[in-house]
Amino acid sequence: MMNEIESRIRGILRRVARLEGEFSARADLFRDLGVRSIAALELLLSLEEEFGVSIADESFGTARNLEALVALVTGLAPGGLT
Amino acid sequence: MSALECSLSAPASIDGDLAEEIAKQAAWISPHVHDVRVSDDGGRVLFRVDEQADAGAERERVERFLIDMVRRHRPMARKLVMRRGDPGRRLVADAYTELRKRGWVVEIAPGRVSLRGPALALVRALDEDCAKIARSLDAREESHPALVPAQVLARCGYFASFPHTVSLVTHLGEDYDAIERFRVANVGAQDLVQPPAAALAPFAACMLPALCYAVYAAREGSAIDDPVAVVTTVGRCYRYESRNLTGIERLWEFGMREVVFLGEPDRVARTRMRLLEAAMDQLERWDLDGTIESANDPFFPAARAEKAWWQRSGDRKLELRLPIGTGADGAPRSVACASFNLHERFFGSAFRIASMDGASATSGCVGWGMERWMFACFAQHGFDPEGWPTWLADRVFR
Q1: Based on the number of CB atoms within 10 Å of its own CB, is B102 exposed (0-12), middle (13-18) or buried (19 or more)?
Q2: What is B35-66 written as a DSSP string?
């Protein structure tokens, strides 16, 4: 399940932030991978839509890599994600 | 001039914060659209269109504006970070009118004021106080021209974010005949006769909208040789505000003292924190009420949602707001008199400025708006020196 969520978020990152190739789940999206700040809101809205969750701005602000985004999304879905 | 009353359904429900921004930003929709406001329930947008204008075309323009304002808007309450307040303070009802009546402020044109006497003395005292704060951080003083190369602002993304407020500088092109025609047209003329647009050279310079852009440009391609480098500068800033250029709260030209800091991320963040604390100490010295709150810049509507959210969500922009009285509706009014900003690596990367670790430098800046501070100070202390802190009264009313 975790791998599937990670894969879906990777897909969103590729589309929204135009990330190409492989990237580490621990790489800082903005500092290391060069995701532009202007893409952050679209990333947040895309995650909410894809997983049907509501993400607090503060929580999103501290989740700065793929691994943290996976944990954030997973933790927000009470019945687990399918 | 008569006008048609119009209304549109809001594309989405509009909260109070956004309604305020819509009212301000609506100034740029069209010269034929007036008094744009959101209904109390947030469900409709009301406005007036000049009768001689094409009402259908103007409505469509308002609709496009609204879609841009509402699209992706994510409500986010202003976060109160710090506060200093005296519940017993009584504010002067209309300090600006009194300043003008006394001749201390002269409005020479919308958005441009001349200062004299105590108003000028107060601005000078503020600048000295801010410079002292900067020196306590070992800031180095710099001076920069008000005329900034347009290319510098392009690289700062200014035209993509604030195309509506930038003041473009041009001149007549090098065409002897066109210059002579302009000269002759203005010989003996009481009013300016404008040259044809074709006689103007493409603009290559702008009036500086904030001092820090010049600080970054002057460091292009360099390396910061301290964990954090602190710079201070004072000068004039220019932001066109269209119909919002009323009174002293929104000026086209205003004075600013800035402290700019570049280097490693933790040191930059710590420097901003030190400046926030220094600003609170400053409120004590000046005996002023104020709050420090999260904020966002007035981005052009089509560029607004993502950038405003980024600033607000990470407290990347904080404003010091000073109370100035109450509005016609009795609600308390305040004005932003200083801002405290973090830019991450945006400017370091745009101008290839390296920090000690070799990465693009992180940056931040703090700016004080001179005229607004002066206005708020008179609104809070009044015009009798007795009500002022002694040291300040000695400086302002001597």
Answers
A1: middle
A2: EEEE-TTSSEEEEEEETTS-HHHHHHHHHHHH
Stretches where chain A sits below pLDDT 70 are 1-2, 78-82
For B30-53, the pLDDT digits (tens) are 999 999 999 999 899 999 999 999
| B76 close to A (CB below 8 A) | yes
Higher pLDDT, B163 or A19: B163
Please give the single-letter amino acid code of residue B173. G
For residue A27, count other CB atoms closer than 10 A to its CB. 17
Structure-token pair, residue B79: 């976060």
Task: Let me know: does A51 contact A7? Beta carbons within 8 Å.
Answer: no
**CA–CA gap between residue B376 and residue B332 (Å, rounded):** 13
* CA A9/CA A11 separation, integer angstroms: 5
Residue B300 at interface with chain A, using a CB cutoff of 8 Å:
no
- Output the DSSP codes for A25-47: TTS-TTTTS---GGGHHHHHHHH
Residues of chain B with Cβ-Cβ distance to A40 below 8 Å are 306, 309-310, 313
- The rounded distance, in Å, linking the Cα atoms of A2 and A73 is 10
